[in-house]
Specification:
The chain is mainly α. The chain folds into 2 domains: 85 residues, Uncharacterised protein YqeY/AIM41, N-terminal domain (Hypothetical Protein Yqey, Chain: A, domain1, Orthogonal Bundle), CATH 1.10.1510; 51 residues, Arc Repressor Mutant, subunit A. The chain contains 7 helices and no strands. The protein starts with a helix and ends with a helix.
Length: 148
């Protein structure tokens, strides 16, 4: 079953059960996907939908941080709950140890200087797309390059 079909089924279930929180969150996600489809002029693949979900999760996490800084705990909690709901539509994420292993393997076959980090991140993001938080990958890559 495609990710789009899963989202539609979950939205329908939320509508039928009266789960307003899930309904509203999934409608916002569906709207973002529809806007991307209009922009692309065609239906999106699951990979493209995953990319949109990742962007939406990132927005929620950033908003949660800002609300916490502004001492608005109720709004921060809402953003965190939305992020958690959306994360269930993402593929299983690699843990930090798995990312370190991939980065170490890459660096062993491709010696990299700090000035070449952009090229390395390009290759690693292609390899890990959708499987890992690219901010964490960047941090681990920088640490491994600096520690030699």
């Amino acid at each position: 079953m495609s990710l789009q079909t899963t989202l539609e089924a979950d939205l329908l279930a939320a509508l039928k059960s009266g789960d307003n929180f899930s309904r509203d969150t999934l409608r916002l996600l569906k709207s973002s996907i529809k806007n991307a489809e209009i922009e692309a002029g065609q239906a999106l693949s699951d990979e493209q939908i995953i990319s949109i979900v990742q962007k939406e999760v990132k927005k929620r996490v950033e908003a949660e941080t800002l609300f916490k800084q502004a001492n608005k705990a109720d709004l921060a909690a809402n953003e965190a709950a939305e992020a958690e709901l959306l994360k269930k539509y993402l593929p299983e994420q690699m843990d930090e140890e798995g990312i370190k292993a991939v980065v170490t393997e890459y660096l062993s076959s491709n010696p990299t200087e700090i000035s070449q980090m952009g090229t390395a991140m390009g290759a690693l993001s292609f390899k890990l797309k959708g499987q890992a938080d690219m901010g964490l990958v960047s941090k681990i890559l920088r640490e491994q390059i600096q520690n030699g």
